[in-house]
Design brief:
With 915 residues, the protein is α+β, with helices and mostly antiparallel strands. It has 34 helices and 23 strands.
């Protein structure tokens, strides 16, 4: 998986916060081979004698553990002819060792959520799982083993190279991805930041195995790694385990190379034009900016937020409000060496590209004409602060974020940069805008000679040690309770009741880290007859709710939620409206009141409506030649059982565009008047809140607003469809998409659902180890992504049974026939031979762990509670479902396979450039 770079928007989400410095806590008893290092805000560093650094971040409030192993190697460290090597190696490290020959299989068996990413400066391997001494022991032993004992064999390279190549082809389908890759290569003359981690196709296809093995031996060593362990852990026990597994690894005799290439100052405007098939027009400008450790990186992060925030940023107001662009934003990289600051606009199909480009450049390069104000800076700092406050409430997310700061020089830079951003002034922001956002430092892709040299000199970063040595940081965020997220405990701690005529509520108060709280609310209304012919208005209305109320405009609503440190979404569809809040105990009441006002009193202003129409039209037009969209629409229309005019009917792109262009704002207002209400629905609140105060507020906010048309769900039933095979042309797209489906009569409550679900998981549930992935990706190297999923229907009354099995895969067009043949053969083998006892036990264990892991998230628990409210279920349903999975036999699973799956009924839709 590729992780290209950190942008200022991402940086902003991980850099703000408040607190005061605290002393280092007393370290646990240390093994003889371990030395204690610095501690910052509850995160403590240790070092083994072989050079391995270890970060521990204990948090008993969530029953999960994350292990993140970061190596100081990325595409920056590759030599000529070896681009993409770091990313290739990331893939090969899942191919195993002599002691661990099947790493994906062992991870799947233990239900470990895993992946790895390669970026410009680093590669990381992460695993997340419910807190378990046995699983943690295995993960640490495996990571120590593959650090120095991975096979990195020619046979594995031959198969995985084609998988990586397919990942490259998938990326080349994206207009944004292709443009950014071209701009980066033009912006950098000599520095390796000009190469994307995916590498050059010829390098990936031809890299000698000896080179890859030498690269592995040089960089994958304990003295070039940082091991991060976070979550519900005992520090002393973890250090003992780390010492036991990593301690025996010897410090290598080799000396890592010191990189000395410095990118010279750019000496004139540059431009690159990409001409490829597609319907999405883009304009972007990139400027060289300093490294993260350089002092100007903090005001540049604030500048990116001032320009790029939606809806209060300057680009939004200058490009999106006048409809010059359907979308626009700005971001800045935060790297070890100087990187890029980028502005980008997505243009409507019939837009004025020249005018949009001129306005985008004016916003970047003429800040001095309208200097950034202290009010803009304060608002940006607040948004950045809200981001880190949410991040630091989840130690597992912090464990992942630390990868980026370690790659930039030292993990403590997260806190150093946070402190610097808190002190940024308008004068700082205006100074860096003038220093770096200038024409001679710009890459629009154009190179134009100039007689006036106006170069942007990039100041060097100081030694990182001068910024972090002796740094203590602020007070760590207050920890919450050690909540056991079992179905039994969730049921015992949850209060469920009904307000008014049908507003069902579940409240689960508990002490959370950072006093966080999650709200998940759905309000229901309307029936099939009333909605017929009004689907477009109902769909667009939901997107207009946050555009302004009768009391606040869109910008004021966004700013108020920012001030309340709350991530908010108020939306709707044809038969429901939703409120989703992620905030804090002390601001919950005001956030709820604001969301209720937004839902009940939408202003529906004309200009935002036209912006929304423009965005929708642009997005719809962009689907015409995208293989995934083309195949998906063809499949959906073939399986569509609903007549034209029905609210659930699948329309053609042309019909959808006609309806988009024809719909009037008055129709949205009428839909709100004729359908919306909040007296019927489901609300779940999970986290840190006052239950009695919330009960009273919910009563006052929602119970008295009754929907004019009562909610009547639309029943859905199984419709058999004959097998269909269709090949669709999408010229000049290097990656093809396969989608396959068979309709099934299956309901979530059916006795054989668990058996069928496990069978489909064995076929295609795991991206590395399921049968489809094991053959098509791991052995034959045809696809980067292949899988299968079961959709089971649900209903409150009766038995809705419109289920299906779906298969998806991507591949180079010339390989798609092989992929389709493999899919059909593996499905036929599943039906003919069934599953084995070992497959069943591994799949059941993985499924149970995934279900357990999901309950560690307050958002997932809130969603589960609202789901149970709607279907009149309790947590006993989850207990029974877990028991059903545990009790499954091979005979039951194979019987469900034979009953439901028929390879001869599989419809396959393939889209790509089949020349």
């Amino acid at each position: 998986m590729i992780g290209v770079s950190r942008c200022a928007v991402a940086l902003a989400l991980s850099l703000a916060g408040v607190g005061v410095a605290t002393a280092r806590p007393a370290p646990p008893a240390l093994p003889a081979t371990v030395e204690a290092g610095p501690c910052v805000e509850g995160i403590c560093q240790y070092q083994l004698h072989n050079g391995l650094r270890v970060l521990l971040f204990p948090d008993a409030s969530k029953p999960t553990v994350t292990v993140n192993l970061v190596y100081g190697v990325g595409s920056l460290h590759e030599n000529y002819g070896e681009t993409g090597m770091a990313h290739l190696l990331e893939h090969l490290l899942f191919k195993g060792t002599a002691r661990n020959p099947d790493i994906p299989g062992q991870m799947q068996k233990r239900g470990i959520s895993k992946n790895a990413t390669t970026s410009l400066d680093r590669t990381n391997y992460f695993a997340s799982f419910p807190a378990s001494d046995e699983t943690l022991e295995w993960v640490l032993a495996m990571e120590a083993d593959r650090m120095v004992n991975s096979r990195v064999a020619k046979a594995d390279l031959d198969s995985e190279m084609t998988v990586v190549r397919n990942e490259m082809e998938a990326g080349d389908n994206s207009p944004v991805g292709v443009l950014m890759k071209r701009m980066r290569s033009v912006a950098f003359d000599w520095h390796n930041y000009g190469n994307m981690p995916i590498g050059a196709r010829s390098d990936v296809e031809n890299v000698p195995i000896d080179n890859l093995q030498a690269f592995y031996r040089a960089w994958y060593q304990p003295d070039n790694a940082l091991l991060i362990v976070a979550g519900r852990i005992d520090e002393g026990q973890v250090l003992q385990r780390v010492a036991a597994h990593f301690g025996p690894l010897k410090r290598p005799a080799r000396v890592l190379p010191v990189l000395h290439t410095v990118e010279p100052a750019q000496d004139g405007e540059r431009e690159v034009t990409v001409r490829r098939s597609g319907d999405l027009a883009l304009v972007a400008a990139s400027y060289h900016v300093p490294a993260l450790a350089q002092a100007d990186s903090a005001p540049l992060a604030v500048l990116a937020n001032v320009l790029g925030d939606n809806p209060n940023g300057r680009l939004y107001k200058a490009l999106m409000e006048p409809k010059l662009a359907a979308f626009a934003t700005a971001s800045g990289e935060s790297l070890r060496d100087p990187g890029l600051f980028t502005l980008i606009g997505v243009l409507p199909k019939a837009g004025d590209a020249a005018k949009a480009e001129a306005e985008l450049l004016r916003q970047a390069e003429q800040v001095a004409a309208r200097p950034v104000s202290e009010e803009e800076v304060a608002a940006a700092r607040q948004r950045i602060a809200n981001g880190l406050e949410k991040l630091t409430s989840d130690v597992n997310a912090v464990a992942m974020a630390l990868s980026e700061y370690q790659a930039a020089g030292d993990w403590r830079l997260l806190f150093v940069q946070r402190d610097a951003i808190a002190k940024v002034s308008a004068a700082d922001v205006n100074r860096v805008a003038a220093a770096y956002l200038k024409p001679s430092n710009r890459t629009l892709g154009r190179f134009v000679p100039t007689t006036t040299v106006d170069r942007a000199g990039i100041p060097p970063a100081p030694a990182v040690a001068s910024l972090v040595d002796g740094y203590v940081g602020r007070e760590a965020v207050a920890a919450g309770e050690a909540f056991e997220a079992t179905p039994q405990n969730i049921q015992a701690r949850t209060e469920t009741f009904t307000l008014g005529e049908g507003l069902k509520v579940s409240l689960l108060p508990k002490k959370n880290r950072g006093q966080t709280v999650t709200v998940d609310a759905t309000f229901r209304f309307g029936d099939e007859k009333g909605m017929t012919g009004r689907g477009m208005a109902g769909s667009l209305l939901g997107s207009m709710l946050m555009m302004g109320s009768t009391h606040m405009d869109r910008g004021q609503i966004a700013a108020r939620f920012d001030a309340l440190a709350t991530q908010a979404q108020v939306s709707g569809g044809m038969q429901s409206a939703q409120i989703r809040l992620s905030g804090r105990r002390d601001t919950l009441a005001e956030a709820l009141a604001l969301a209720a006002d937004v839902l009940r009193n939408p202003a529906l202003p004309e200009d935002p409506f036209e912006q929304l129409r423009l965005q929708a039209v642009t997005a719809t037009e962009a689907q015409r030649r995208e293989p995934g969209a083309v195949a998906s629409l063809a499949l959906a229309r073939y399986f569509d059982p609903w007549p034209e005019g029905h609210p659930l009917h699948v329309e053609t792109l042309d019909t959808a565009l006609e309806r988009l262009n024809a719909v009037k704002l008055q129709e949205l207002a009428a839909y709100h008047r004729d359908f919306y209400g909040t007296s019927v629905g489901e609300i779940a609140i999970v986290g840190d809140f006052d239950a009695e105060a919330v009960k009273a507020q919910l009563q006052s906010l929602f119970v008295d607003w009754k929907a004019p048309r009562a909610y009547v769900p639309i029943s859905t039933h199984y419709q058999p469809r004959a097998a269909m095979q269709q090949r669709l042309a999408t010229p000049d797209k290097p990656n093809a998409v396969l989608l396959a489906r068979q309709n099934l009569s299956i309901n979530l409550a059916d006795a054989d659902f668990a058996a069928l679900n496990i069978a489909v998981n064995i076929l295609g549930g795991d991206p590395l180890k399921a049968r489809l992935a094991d053959r098509i990706r791991q052995k034959e190297g045809l696809s980067y992504s292949v899988g299968a999923a079961l959709h089971a229907d649900e209903s409150r009354e009766g038995r809705d049974d419109a289920g299906s099995i779906a298969v998806q895969a991507i591949a180079a067009p010339e390989n798609m026939d092989k992929v389709e043949r493999a899919v059909r053969e593996e499905l036929a083998r599943l039906v003919a031979d069934g599953v084995t006892e070992q497959e069943l036990r591994d799949a059941v264990n993985a499924r149970l762990v995934v279900r357990e892991q999901s309950r560690a998230s307050d958002g997932a628990v809130a969603n589960l509670l609202t789901d149970h409210l709607y279907y009149a279920r309790a947590m006993q349903f989850e207990i029974d479902r877990d028991a059903a999975y545990r009790a499954l036999t091979v005979e039951q699973v194979n019987a469900a396979i034979r009953k439901h799956l028929d390879p001869g009924q599989l419809s396959v839709f393939v889209a790509g450039d089949f020349k």
